[in-house]
Amino acid sequence: MTDNIPPSLIKELAETGGEFYRRGWALGATGNFSVLLSRKPLRLCITAAGSENGTFDDTNFLEIDDDAEILQGFGRPSDETLLHLTIYRLRPKARCILYSHSASGIILSDRNFVDGSISMQGYEILKGLTGVTTHEHTERIPIVENSQDHVAQSHVLQNVLIEEGNIRGIYIRRHGLFTWGETVAEARRQVEVFEFLFEILARTGA
Amino acid sequence: MTDNIPPSLIKELAETGGEFYRRGWALGATGNFSVLLSRKPLRLCITAAGSENGTFDDTNFLEIDDDAEILQGFGRPSDETLLHLTIYRLRPKARCILYSHSASGIILSDRNFVDGSISMQGYEILKGLTGVTTHEHTERIPIVENSQDHVAQSHVLQNVLIEEGNIRGIYIRRHGLFTWGETVAEARRQVEVFEFLFEILARTGA
Amino acid sequence: MTDNIPPSLIKELAETGGEFYRRGWALGATGNFSVLLSRKPLRLCITAAGSENGTFDDTNFLEIDDDAEILQGFGRPSDETLLHLTIYRLRPKARCILYSHSASGIILSDRNFVDGSISMQGYEILKGLTGVTTHEHTERIPIVENSQDHVAQSHVLQNVLIEEGNIRGIYIRRHGLFTWGETVAEARRQVEVFEFLFEILARTGA
Amino acid sequence: MTDNIPPSLIKELAETGGEFYRRGWALGATGNFSVLLSRKPLRLCITAAGSENGTFDDTNFLEIDDDAEILQGFGRPSDETLLHLTIYRLRPKARCILYSHSASGIILSDRNFVDGSISMQGYEILKGLTGVTTHEHTERIPIVENSQDHVAQSHVLQNVLIEEGNIRGIYIRRHGLFTWGETVAEARRQVEVFEFLFEILARTGA
User: Fold this and answer.
1) DSSP at D56
2) Is B148 in CB contact (< 8 Å) with chain A?
3) H helix count then E strand count, chain C
4) CB distance from C150 to chain D under 8 Å?
5) Closest approach of chain B CAs to the CA of C41, in angstroms?
């Protein structure tokens, strides 16, 4: 529960969570959505662990500062809070981070791609990614290993985000996809693009 | 927003869009549905880019003339506006054009079929296509290459529509299916027939 | 439209139709559900062709006698009306016939099974079929060829129904499944059992 | 019908049943959910056979004692009542038992795993299982043969539950998954975790 997150945003996030759950992109999941409240100082709202079935409301959000300390709300923050903070720090335009996991995505993340990333090219739907204007675009999603050492993992993410200026998502192997956007709608549209292509790639063995 | 499109039609299109989205045939998509308002002069309503999640209302429609100029409404017309105009010009009975993209359809569109088209025969559901009275019918959907040069692509479509008098849909490779009908219901039923068969063909390797 | 079909039955059939449509078992379909009104004389209500999207109400039903003549209601009877009549004649307990077609079912129906039928055994869910009390039961669904000669096809069905006293469904190849029951609920539960097993068999190549 | 089951619990179970049905995890099914009313004496509520389509209310529940005798309610208890009783006896914390069956789960249950169990490791979603704090966890679900001799089968389950102190579910081959939890929400979350991983494993042949 936090005073600082507008009801319309809660509604948009809840609608997104319900849709992800319905599609099987959020099964068994604890909360993993966030929105930026301010940059200076860095403040974000993140769903608390235990926001299940894709259903949540304002009581499921915690307000967090840049040390991952809880400023408002009750509950345990998501294990991935440090990863969210890292993404917001390294991507100054990001105002929303969404997490999804599908069977297809996880199957793909387990393949040994030559350059360690899921690569997608030649699909019109890539134009659903902000800034992409042609299907001839190549989009790469780096795959990083999963770890329960969240400090170490946030450093790995930090390095990836610094080295790869153009990526729009990161896949943690056998875990799920982190995507971000300037708005909830943008982040959600990008999740849809990626999950749609994951299904195609997982089914074709590409 | 346009004065000229009846609310019942908006409702029918919105219901269709919601259903396509639910089935995963419109993920990450910007608008790509149109209806014909008049033939002489040629006027159509087309969903504006940015009509997401399968949800839209009258504010998502632009009224367009036969030079693709916006007569009413706000927003950017779909990149495929020229393709819609081409189909209406070459198919005098068409009054609605729908666009769908499924994982199965895109997987199929990427196969190298001998005659460059998706071919379907022997299925009872083909009788859901207007004018088809037996499962022994062979339906072909030509596959054309995708291009961001929409003028060039509309010429390609024009040639296909002239050469192939009997086709009911065109697939743009790795993009999606364009289908048309005299009514929204007819176009939608044909999308359902095609997408159903795409799933079968994609799964069987036929 | 018919006076003789109780509103509660319409509601149950409409709910069933909506569910089949949602699951992708009734895409692109015209009407193909029926209920028995009386045995002597033989009277049935059958959805008219054009009952789309799994949505229908009492206006979509035609009352038919045993010559397939329309007694009440407007519209064209389903192409499969003769098949419904044949099933009611040969299965004296049947009071509801449902039709479904799924991608998995059609894929299966196209395999060359040694005895020309889809065979299912060893699954607990078989106990969802009326009269089956053990998973060790073997259920067979004969596959017959599709034909637009509905008189000839109803004779084929008649022979199958006479020869195979224990079957609970018939698959018309590349068309769909006909199942029946004493009630809508029974017929629907049997469709669910069959379609569930079709998915398993289609995916495993069994 | 039983006086002893709180309406909020009925609602939660009904919502869970509806969701399982929607996902295709409860097709063709008769009732197979239970909650513990008291430990001493052992009393449970279990859905009666015939609770279909994932829809049920308080009239679908029977109150049962530890001899599987009906104390309240009308109808035939589920064939698996003895299995529920066995699980409650051997798992003192369990207060809810859920049953699900998916095509993927049944396909998996039919593979000949070396140690006779479905084994899952390395997936972040395993942390959705109570007590699991790392993806490096290995979760095993023993597979037992199906039998219509429910007394014999409850003995088999009893042995498995005694020998394997850490399991969170048991799969009856070609039948379905039994999972339990201290609450409906916990049991449901565990079903989601398992069914999600079953899809991945069934699709990858692992």
Assistant:
1) -
2) yes
3) 5, 9
4) no
5) 31
Q: How far apart are CA A129 and CA C76, in angstroms?
A: 47
Please list, in sequence order, all residues whose beta carbon lies within 8 angstroms of the beta carbon of residue C61, skipping any fewer than 6 positions away.
C1, C2, C5, C10, C45, C46, C47, C48, C73
Mean pLDDT along residues B157-172:
97
DSSP symbols for D114-171: TTSEEEEES-GGGGGSTT---TT-EEEEEEE---S-HHHHHHHHHHHHHH-TT-SEEE
Answer whether B11 touches C (CB < 8 Å). Answer: no
CA B24 to CA D112: how far, in whole Å?
34
Distance CA(D46)–CA(D28), nearest Å, equals 18
Minimal CA–CA distance to A138: which of A152, A123, A150, A148? Answer: A123
**CA–CA separation, B119 vs B42, rounded Å?**
32
Kindly list the residues from chain B whose CB atom is less than 8 angstroms away from the CB atom of residue A21. none
How many angstroms separate the CA of residue A53 from the nearest CA in chain D? 8
Those residues with Cβ within 8 angstroms of residue D15's Cβ, 6 or more apart along the chain or in another chain: none
Structure-token match 């039928």, residue found: C117
Minimum Cα–Cα distance from D109: chain C residue: C123
* CA A142 centroid distance within chain: 13
A44 sits in which H/E element: strand A43-47
Look up the ipTM and state it: 0.95
D1: pLDDT confidence band, cut at 50, 70 and 90? low
- Token pair 């209806």 is found at B35
Strand order in the sheet with A176-181: A70-72, A61-65, A43-47, A34-38, A96-100, A176-181, A169-172, A138-144, A117-121
Per-residue pLDDT averaged across C66-92, rounded?
Answer: 92
Distance in Å, alpha carbon of D176 to nearest chain A alpha carbon: 19
Q: In whole angstroms, give the CA distance from residue C78 to residue A112.
A: 52
Q: Chain B partners of A122 at a C-beta cutoff of 8 Å?
A: 146, 174
